[in-house]
Amino acid sequence: MLLSLATPIVVVGLQSTFSQSFYQDGRLNSLLLVGLANAASLLVLSRLRRLPTVRLETIFPAIYLLFLSLGVVVLLLTRASYSLSMMLPSALIFGVSLMFVLLRVHRRHMRVGLFDHELKDLVAPHASVTKLHHPKDIVDAPIDLVVARFAQPNVASSMVMQRAMMLSDVPMIGLADFLEASEGMVQPDRIPSLNQVAFDQRLAYQFVKRIFDLVLAMLMLPAALLLAGPIALAIKQTSPGPVLFRQARMGWRGKTFVIFKFRTMRTDHEGQGFTISKDEERITSVGKFLRKTRLDEIPQLINIIKGEMSWIGPRPESLELAKWYCRDVPLFRIRHLVRPGISGWAQVNQGYAAGVEDVTVKVRYDLYYIKHLSLWLDITILLKTIIVVLSGRGSR
Questions:
Q1: 346, 381 in Cβ contact below 8 A?
Q2: Per-residue pLDDT tens for 200-232?
Q3: Which of 3.90.350, 3.90.320, 3.30.70, 3.40.50 is the CATH number of 110-183?
Q4: Coil, strand or helix at 246
Q5: What single string gives the DSSP state of each residue in 273-329?
Q6: pLDDT tens per residue, range 285-334
């Protein structure tokens, strides 16, 4: 936080050496804008760093540019003066400095001490694991976290473990909790209980998210209408058939709704409503572009406004697929406890899922999202979605 405020001050000091008109020409406004953008970015990063599979150095540019853009919009709407010569250097210095720090932190893996009589080794992303054979090893080993699971828990071993942790001041976490936090999905043998996904206690979250869905949908509507014309024309010119693709999907609380998308396939190869192959020959040339850029999802603004979908949530499956998965994939029905979304936790971490095995993994991601519902997790998914769209990953 101090860095966020210090960066503009350093720039101010440099400029004051050569100029006596700091309080003129909008320089003070520019200083406040960059300082607030810096502070807001650090606040968001401090919350998002606790979430699994999140690399701060990849989402920081999007966060920082977002807050800077919001500040510029406020200045333009209020017609306040500003100075690019003040704004750009301070923003650049802070951005480059924080990126350097984030990259250094990312290269340093967490040192994990594994205390488990059954597990010989532990593979965890961004972590170096040291095998501990006795609780006393915690005191001497250079570790940041203890991951423990006793084969046969007893009072004596627990007391020795607690005493060693008190002496070393190293926190401990259970193996299943560690795997869930590092992988970002619920473990197969640890399904969340109903009280862990109790939505009555999250009414405020649901209300705020619904307002956010509506506001963002209305803000996106003008741009969507501008794009709809050229997209519809391109679809009509490349293949005969309707512009919109309509399909019955299983949504919130298991209710059926009709989803809207721009048609990306030829109408003479519709299939049975679902496919297993990632290489779809029936996708048109325009359809490939629409899918890669996610522009085919634009009509789902209608579903969001109607309350059938959200921006963020488990991706809804076709009715045929949903019935199949409800029968063959354990706990698939739990996904319907929340509104389906245009993008979700499984989409940004796993990508396209084909077949029962892939869908089983996807359900574990979705259960993690349902178990840990929060606006911060939604923001993370939104930022990761932007990165996925720009990179073209996960499309088919």
A1: no
A2: 546 778 888 999 999 999 999 999 999 999 999
A3: 3.40.50
A4: strand
A5: S----S--TTB-HHHHHHHHHTGGGGGGHHHHHTTS-EEESPPPPBHHHHHHHHHHS
A6: 999 999 988 999 999 999 999 999 999 999 999 999 899 898 888 788 88
